[in-house]
Write a structure and sequence with these properties.
Elements (H helix, E strand, L loop, with lengths): L1 H19 L5 H16 L4 H27 L15 E9 L4 E6 L2 E7 L10 E8 L2 E6 L7
Helix pairs in contact: 1-2, 2-3
Length: 148
Amino acid sequence: MDLMWVWLVIAILFFLGEVLTAGFVLAAFGVGALVATMAALLGATLPVQLVVFIVTSGAGVLLSRRFADRVTGPQAQGVGIDRVMGKQAVVLETIDPMAATGLVRVDREEWRADAVDNVPIPAGKVVQVVTVEGTRLKVRLVPTDEPA
């Protein structure tokens, strides 16, 4: 019966560790410790409790990997600010490096913009988003022979 409390404390520690870390691994060991707690409550011997803990934790790790990879893995392309990278935009307000002005529209969103080569780009021109620095897009003028 005393081992039941030990397993319960171990389970709580694993769950607290899971909350404080990334990776979604410690939760499987917390579940294993909870199942070992139940085994101890039912009167299983220490070797049986250890086997229950190891088997349950191992199965939990294997079964949770797919979910964990989906949650903590790399984001899909085109999510967040990456969605504007490489897209073409229309200059709404002249991009002037000296005055630090410039506004472009990418799809239906308006963004402050700077030219990558620090050359003014007049309103109405088509540009391509090269990178993002803070909240401003860095753009390059699209040559006129390329389709808009």
